[in-house]
Amino acid sequence: MTASAGVGADAIPFSRPFRAKNDLRNLERVLESDHAHGDGAFTRSATGRLLTITDARNALLTTSCTHALEMSTRLLGIGPGDEVILPTFTFPSAANAIALTGARCVFVDIDPASGNIDPEQVDEAVGAHTKAVIVMHYGGMPVDLDAMTDISTRHGIPIIEDNAHGLGVSTAAGVLGTIGVLATQSFHDTKNVHCGEGGALIINDASLVERAEIMREKGTNRSQFLRGQVDKYSWVDLGSSYLMSEFNAAVLDAQLEDFVEIQASRFAIWDRYATELAEWAAERGIAPMNPAGGVHAAHVFFLLMPDWAAQEAFIGHLRHVGVTATFHYVPLDTSPAGREFGRTLRQLDRAEDFSRRLVRLPLWAGMTESQVGRVIAAALSYTE
Length: 384
Description:
alpha/beta
């Protein structure tokens, strides 16, 4: 929310992109070089940092998480007549990645406490035409990995992890992004680590690496040419321009360099919200975000209000006192495109209820203690 929206110049926005220590230095190095397109020094450096954080073996930087999801469905050969299961409470990019192949989305419900996909409904939804399941770790809270891995193994269907929220989150099963056959990361400017617009594809099946490189480079074997593996490159498969530029990679590299600092700042804010709002929330029947085992990415801090009217009233109250809070996804199965390109087993009541009660509080690395205090005070002053 800005001053032009009527809440004053000192209003607290919902999110603010992090400024890394070396972002301008890195950008100047790109400008001074003769290499501004992708696959340069910063692409290599940022990829290396990403592999260290995720404990993955193979990663490709992309222009967006959306494009990484599109690459994922195509790499798995999904097409007309196929079905892919996904949560209805997620961003449309996952559904688009399915629908663009000609396959059908099968939407399932969520765990009402976390917003994550419900494994029982996934198991029920698996059919003869099921080719994959896409899971999203909402707020960096891991889905039920044991249950999802069991379903994947029993039915022989691969998992694609939409890990847009969960960079660097470690679990007993491994770091998020390394559990599925493929995984995607987002570096949009609302994420913990960003480069304005950007993403990455994590490839956990080595047999898919070469084709992914070709797909990302407009369907050419240019990556092999740059490594000296072929003497010239040509069009060898279908692809598109999914390669991140060096400008974006330079900013991303600086951000990943500051990853520990970013996460420490975000967790300090998250922990303060959880501690100082606990009693107030309990008195009013409000459920704060409560990640199982305390595992999450400090990407969001949400409250589940008692009902839709309370959600609207609370967001309006915060806006009135200069704090921007917001809801999140509208369930995809209720959307016009969701009805056209997808189906459900039944009415997905839990996702609809979750969506109509959820409120996210401002959270970004670099929020001052004063700003966090203002958000908390604004919340505590809500008495309805």
